[in-house]
Amino acid sequence: MLEVYDLSLPHRDLVEIQDFLRDADVLTTPTQVFDDNYSIVEWIRAADHSEIEVSIILDNNIFTRVSALTQDKRTFSSPEDQKSYRLAAAVMAFSIQAGFSIEPGLALYEKASSGSHENSAAEYRAFQIGDETDPTYWSAFALGRDKALRVPANAMEQAKQRMPLPEKDLTKDLRHHSQATLYLMKLLELKDQLKNPSDIFIAFILWMEQEALPDFLIALFAIHFLSEKTHSRSIKNSSSRDPKLVFRGLQNAAWDITYVRIWSIRAKHDASSRYWLFCSNDRHLQMLARHFLTVSGVSIDDYVGELFTPNDAQKILSRLYDAERLVHLNTDGSKDRQRAFWDSLSDRISHQRIRTEKLIKQR
Predict the structure, then answer these.
(1) Is the pLDDT assigned to residue 178 strictly greater than 70?
(2) pTM for this structure?
(3) What is the dihedral of CA 109, 113, 117, 120, to 10 degrees?
(4) 184 Cβ neighbours under 8 A, 6+ residues apart
(5) 53: buried, middle or exposed (CB in 10 Å: 19+, 13-18, 0-12)?
(6) How far is the CA of 340 from the CAs of 15, 54, 118, 212, 213, in angstroms?
(7) pLDDT tens-place string over residues 72-100
C-alpha cells in the first residue's frame, strides 16, 4: 500500500537537510532504529505505525544557537561559527518536520549554572517561539537562502499559549552533575599525583569502590581523559595553574557526563513508550554517549587499544569491567552505602575542592 505524507518541507529541502545532518552526524540513538537514522520519512512512518513517541535532547551549544536565532542575536565570528548556527537550524527543521518532542531542559540547567534563573527563562521563551516556527523557515536559513531566521507572527502567538517555565530554581545543581563534579576533581588529583595512565585509572576505580560509588559512565570518561589522544578535549585547561580556568573546564566536563547520564536514564526508563535521541555536535560528547549506551561500530576493547599501549590497555580494561560489574550489585549493604554517599555529597565536594585547588596552585 502506498503511503503518502503531507510534509511542510519541499523535497529538495528535505534531502539537503537530511544530508547536512547526516554529514555532521549529530544524532545519537540508544539502538540503531533504521538503516538511516537521518530519514525524516522513516521517523514519521515509525510514529504512524506504532504508539511510541520520539523525544530529542539538545545540548547547550545547539540550544543556545536556536534561542539566539529566534531573537536575532546571532554572532558569526567565523565561517565555521556560521555553519554551527546553520546546523542548529537544520536540527530544528528536521526535528519539527519529523514530529519530535524537543527537550531543552538540561541545556537550561547548564545555562543557569553560569548565569541566572531569569536569563534561562528568557532563553526558554525564545526557544518556544522557535519550536512553533514552521520547518520551512528553519530550512531556509539552514540552507543559506535567508541571512537570518524569519519568525512568523503566529509562532510568537502560539508560544505565548504554551506552558510557562517551571517555578523550580534552575540554578540549583542537579544531583548527577554534583556527583560528576566530585569524581572529576578526584581524577584531577590522582593525575597530578601519579604519572602512568593505567596506575591513575586503577587508583580512580579503587577510590570509587572504597570511598564513593562505582560508576561505569565516569570510568569511561576517565579513559578519554587519560589518553594523550583525547585528553585535551575531555577537560579543557585541566593542566593550567589557574584554578578558575581548571574549574570552568571541569564544570563543562561534568555537564557532558550529566547529559549522557540523563539521556541514558530516560532511554532505558521510557523504552516501551518513548524513544529518546540525543543531539550534539561535540565529537567527544558523542563518543562518550555512543560507547556508554549504543553500538557505535567500535568495541570498547578496540577503542581502548587504540588510545593506550597494549600493557596499559589490558590493565585499564580489566578494571573497567570490574567497575561495570560492581555497578549492578544491588545488596542491602550497597543500598545503605548509596544513601550515605548522596547524603554526604555536598560536604565531600567542598572538601575535595579545597584539596584540588591546593594541588593546582602547587603545580
Answers:
(1) yes
(2) 0.88
(3) -60
(4) 218, 221, 235, 250, 253, 254, 257
(5) middle
(6) 53, 36, 34, 10, 10
(7) 766 777 888 899 999 999 999 999 999 99
